[in-house]
């Protein structure tokens, strides 16, 4: 790694707090914003070099990962706004097995003929080959904590929670918008636990027709219905391991009651069978809607949620952790470079600016799809991801946004009526159809509620009582 430099223009050493302990430059043109006589030892790295932050500083990155980083090219903007290219080797400094700081050796490789501020380097050095390889292992959790790529504080706190959750066997409820990475967290919980060598079974409840869910989950006995054979269900297949049920709010309510019984008794009975079989399964569930809303909408039994939600993980959407976007762009470019045999090492500034400013309603999955599209558009000889590689996909995304923004506004009286009907239905669900309790919950007279129940036809949908 050090042989790549041949010579160096500067050395910087910091401690774990980011304080500069030592710095020297051998090339007077290197970091001209720092006067040779200026005393920067003892200052914060970010005070001396305001163009850096913890996300972009390799000195901080090696302290965090404990692994050296070699960057063939890194862009640095000096105090005059002039972009320079450097080659860097950054190394963690350890004492008695503990990281106490880091050191960086740098060489200026600027090319004055290159257009300034036009492209930004893709950093693939942070992603090991294990993260980039294709993972196909049936009935095994293939993602680990290290596969959850983030620099966001809240996400890192969730990763710490995963380590704690993994020590027990209690159910875990994960919720977050579509594409935020719920399944990655489920895999990571399993792989951090003592069940990691046992089966990990995944089932999306929304992907199954209602007529098949019960037999797939709990199994069948031969002869229980036409064509039925002796087949174990997912609970039996996951015995000793973990069962991940995604979109649990898509499961029919009557089957949720049976699922609750299995969770309480740790036993399962196949469809049409009298025999009860003991199972030892950790259940992880997920929804893309807040569980409280699922309960209010009648999509999730309240008692089942209390059993499933012993421990919960709420994954923030990508628009609330924009600092992860650049990191994920680097990761996906590296991933698709490998799978598509491309050699993209830069991304144009206008492309990156769009990616950083877009709201990503489809979250990480949407970002991944956009990067894969752009890599496919790039020629084999291209080394930079340009805006024209993204242009058609960007138009498509903006078109979707405009479609959502052009939703017709209904008359206010209709909107109020719909809201009123929804709130009454929610109250009826929470009170198991008790009109008097629902009226108190809504803070309206019981007679008024009774009239509105008849007005909206709600009495045809609930077996309510006074």
TrEMBL record:
List, for all copies, the residue spans of the domain called Sigma-54 factor interaction: 148-376
Cite the GO molecular-function annotations of the record: ATP binding; sequence-specific DNA binding
Q: Which Pfam families does this entry report, sorted A to Z?
A: AAA_lid_14, HTH_8, Sigma54_activat
InterPro entries, alphabetically? AAA+_ATPase, AAA_lid_NorR, Homeodomain-like_sf, HTH_Fis, P-loop_NTPase, Sigma_54_int, Sigma_54_int_dom_ATP-bd_1, Sigma_54_int_dom_ATP-bd_2
Coiled-coil-forming residues are none
Keywords, A to Z, come to: ATP-binding, DNA-binding, Nucleotide-binding, Transcription, Transcription regulation
Indicate yes or no for the key word ATP-binding: yes
GO biological process, any:
regulation of DNA-templated transcription
Top-rank lineage group of the source organism: Bacteria
Question: Is the ATP-binding keyword given for this protein?
Answer: yes
PANTHER family registered for this protein in UniProt: TRANSCRIPTIONAL ACTIVATOR ROCR, TRANSCRIPTIONAL REGULATORY PROTEIN
- According to UniProt, the name of this protein is Arginine utilization regulatory protein
């Amino acid at each position: 790694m050090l042989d790549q430099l041949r010579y160096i223009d500067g050395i910087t050493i910091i401690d774990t707090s980011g304080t500069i302990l030592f710095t020297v430059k051998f090339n007077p043109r290197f970091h001209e914003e720092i006067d040779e006589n200026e005393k920067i030892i003892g200052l914060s790295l970010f005070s001396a070099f305001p163009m850096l932050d913890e996300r972009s500083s390799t000195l901080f990155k090696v302290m965090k990962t404990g692994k050296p980083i070699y960057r063939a090219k890194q862009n640095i903007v000096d105090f005059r706004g002039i972009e320079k290219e450097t080659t860097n080797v950054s190394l963690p400094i350890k004492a008695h097995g503990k990281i106490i700081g880091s050191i960086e050796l740098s060489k200026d490789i600027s090319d004055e003929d290159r257009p300034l501020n036009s492209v930004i380097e893709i950093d693939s050095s942070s992603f090991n080959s294990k993260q980039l390889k294709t993972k196909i292992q049936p009935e095994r959790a293939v993602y680990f904590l290290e596969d959850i790529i983030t620099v966001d504080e809240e996400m890192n706190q969730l990763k710490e929670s995963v380590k704690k959750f993994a020590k027990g066997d209690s159910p875990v409820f994960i919720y977050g918008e579509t594409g935020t990475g719920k399944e990655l967290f489920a895999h990571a919980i399993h792989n951090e636990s003592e069940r990691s060598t046992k089966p990990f079974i995944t089932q999306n409840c929304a992907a199954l027709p209602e007529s098949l869910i019960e037999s797939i989950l709990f199994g069948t006995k031969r002869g229980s219905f036409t064509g039925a054979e002796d087949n174990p269900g997912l609970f039996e297949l996951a015995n000793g391991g973990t069962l991940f049920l995604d979109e649990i709010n898509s499961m029919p309510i009557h089957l949720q009651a049976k699922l609750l019984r299995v969770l309480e008794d740790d036993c399962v009975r196949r469809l049409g069978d009298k025999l009860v079989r003991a199972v030892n399964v950790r259940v992880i569930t997920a929804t893309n809607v807040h569980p409280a809303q699922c309960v209010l909408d009648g999509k999730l039994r309240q008692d089942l949620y209390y059993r499933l939600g012993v421990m919960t993980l709420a994954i923030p959407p990508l628009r609330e952790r924009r600092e992860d976007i650049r990191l994920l762009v680097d990761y996906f470019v590296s991933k698709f470079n490998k799978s598509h045999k491309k050699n993209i090492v830069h991304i144009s500034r206008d492309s990156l600016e769009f990616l950083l400013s877009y709201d990503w309603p489809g979250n990480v999955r949407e970002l991944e799809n956009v990067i894969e599209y752009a890599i496919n558009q790039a020629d084999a000889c291209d080394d930079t991801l340009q805006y024209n590689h993204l242009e058609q996909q960007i138009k498509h995304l903006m078109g979707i946004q405009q479609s959502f923004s052009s939703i017709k506004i209904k008359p206010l009286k209709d909107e109020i009526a719909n809201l009123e009907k929804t709130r009454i239905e929610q109250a009826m669900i929470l009170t198991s159809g008790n009109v008097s309790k629902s009226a108190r919950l809504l803070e309206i007279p019981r007679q008024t509620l009774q009239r509105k129940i008849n007005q909206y036809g709600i009495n045809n949908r609930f077996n309510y009582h006074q």
